[in-house]
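TL;DR need structure tokens for one chain.
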Amino acid sequence: MSNEVADEEQRRELKALQAALAAEHAAVYGYGVVGGRIGQDRRAEAKAAYDAHRARRDALVREVRDLGGRPVAAAAAYALPFPVVDSAAAVRLAGELEDRVAGVYSDVVRAAGDERRATAAGALREAAVRAVRWRGESVAFPGLAERAATASAAGSASTTPAP
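>> reply
TL;DR here they are.
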């Protein structure tokens, strides 16, 4: 493989990893909101998801650096897709966060090499499972439907820094 092709593949992979990192930053923020509104019966589940996203975020920071990139920083705040005023809205937000993270990891699966592809597929699967747990229903191809829905939008609401 020529150096030009390898460089282009690395740029694509780095771009996808940066997008995943940005999504994880947003998910960590979002789960902070979820944790403030979620009912006691699901608080442990929200905490476990928060911890999982923090761990993924930290791993992505290392991966971006390993590829020679400068990890994208978290925004001070993120716009939420809807008001989160009670436990039901917090559950809905958690499902939305997981859908969006799954969508971004589907991009990493397409862009990454073998080892990172497997890790990204695992992250996509984990997000899809959490989304099902929050929502109570699944989709046929997690990550793909979400990407099609957000591809036409200028930006993802949960990953858009607040003005």
